[in-house]
Amino acid sequence: SGTGKTSTLVKYAEKFADLNFLYVTFNKAVAERGRSVFPRNVTCKTFHSLAFGSVGKHYKEKGKLNFSKMSVYSISSLIRNRKDQALFVRAKTVSQTLENFFASSDKEICEEHTPVWFKNTHGVRTLVSGAEKQINVEEAKEIWHNMKKLDGDVEKKYKMTCDGYLKLWQLRKPQLSGYDAIFVDEAQDCTPAIVDIVLSQRCGIILVGDPHQQIYTFRGAVNTLHSVRHTHVYYLTQSFRFGPEIAYVGATILDVCKKIRNKTLVGGNQKGDVRGSTEGKITLLSRSNFNVFEDAVKLTGRETPIKIHVIGGLDRFGLSRIYDIWKLSQPTDERKKAKLVINDSFIKKWEETRGFLGLREYAEAIDDKDLETKIAIVEKYKERIPELVQKIESSHVSQNGMADYLIGTVHQAKGLEFDTVLVADDFVQVPCLCSDSQRRINFSIGMYPEDEWNLLYVAVTRAKKYLLMSKSLEHLLALAGERFLRVELMSEAAKDGAAVACSVPSCTETLQPSSRLVVKKLPLTHSDGSSDAGGYLCHACTRQRFGSLTPLTFFPELQEQPIQL
């Protein structure tokens, strides 16, 4: 959140120029940025690059390295059919067992790594029985045993994954020699496996992170900042990235959603705004890739050609896979007639078997959110997909400095900062609770996991100068009493003497001319382009927002009373 965590490490390394440091993080882009800001006595690496240099490279040399996760589809071909059990559903639980093991610090796969719940073929969450857990463990062990083999797997069905070779590296208890201390950035996102590697080092260890930016618990991350024993703890609450306005929004999210009130995020004296101003490069941050695609469609569909940059790149976003899914959705004869070739090896498998409907059923069965998102994009835009993909590809630039707009998910934007940020409306939907009729809406902060609020916090704190909020985020601020209201003199509101109507759309009242003071709603432009022009509020609408404090905002004119002698 711009509190100077990295800058503190830079100064620390500069102060001890005679020592050698290792700066290690998860994100490749963050590690590359580190190389440009740290002095020469600091080596910048990712955990996976360290593991690759020691373990992963051997699997690559043998052609046994899979740079993505082992898919549920692949696992389904490696496990045995069992009566009354859907193969893909079972493969999903085996996949989760492997992922949980890779994230853990454990030496062997055991029942603790198996999922507690699974979705059956009807989409109903069901408890995994003890017998099923044991089967999961046995099958996961067999797959892991074959993954580890460098030789013997002629058909290369059991390729090693990135998390797999990181796990192997952890089990070897590596010693990172040649360093006097290790800087671990984004420590809140460490898995137990990585914590085990870090704590096994004999040199000094400095953990840096923000527990409110923990957004990878679904990958097995634990908040190392709280779980690891320490000798010293230092809190950085002054942000040097943004001013008080953006800091206030971030601090309010922590207050309302996480009850964090003792370490308030404070902004600097930089100019800033959260009510609609923009400056510099504009970045649109979303919760989901579906929204990122929609942003790309809107931006590239403008009459004036513009350049966009998808944070993380088009390959990572999966634009080509979306196009291949569209090809799969076309009737076989039309696909052949148009010579549509499916390039994605996974999607191509469905061309040879159950087609588009089979792919959709598969995605639903294993609850693959990323694949479901891509299918949803194809189903929404249908025949427009080829044209849209072509437009996005031709408008995309690889360097963000060349782009007019940056778009991406919060996960991809982690650790980055931008002049102006538009927060999309696809985060947790906070309803407007300002009227009595709406207070009965079934909503509470506790209904959502902490990660969801952390995502929103990360999105907000990427902004350096200007933040455009979604309506939902405005509603969230209202829960803390922030409604962008200010009190003015009635004489300012009614300069020409005419009656002033209440600005609330559903209200037909006018302001009381006898009042000395009147409440005004400040204008606000939302991230979706909609605007609230603001305006003055009548006594009833003010009471709705201020409650018992309303009398403080309305002072009747003092009437001169004749003095009784």
TrEMBL record:
Keyword field contains ATP-binding: yes
GO BP terms: double-strand break repair via homologous recombination; replication fork processing
Catalysis performed (reactions): ATP + H2O = ADP + phosphate + H(+); Couples ATP hydrolysis with the unwinding of duplex DNA by translocating in the 3'-5' direction
Keyword list, A-Z: ATP-binding, Helicase, Hydrolase, Isomerase, Nucleotide-binding
GO cellular component: nucleus
UniProt keyword ATP-binding, yes or no: yes
Occurrences of domain UvrD-like helicase C-terminal (ranges): 326-472
Domain UvrD-like helicase ATP-binding: 2-224
Pfam families: UvrD-helicase (PF00580), UvrD_C (PF13361)
GO molecular function: 3'-5' DNA helicase activity; ATP binding; DNA binding; hydrolase activity
InterPro entries: DNA_helicase_UvrD-like_C (IPR014017), DNA_helicase_UvrD/REP (IPR000212), P-loop_NTPase (IPR027417), UvrD-like_ATP-bd (IPR014016)
Its EC number(s): 5.6.2.4
PANTHER family in the cross-refs: F-BOX DNA HELICASE 1, UVRD / RECB / PCRA DNA HELICASE FAMILY MEMBER
Designated name of the protein: DNA 3'-5' helicase
Organism (species): Cariama cristata (Red-legged seriema)
Higher taxonomy: Eukaryota, Metazoa, Chordata, Craniata, Vertebrata
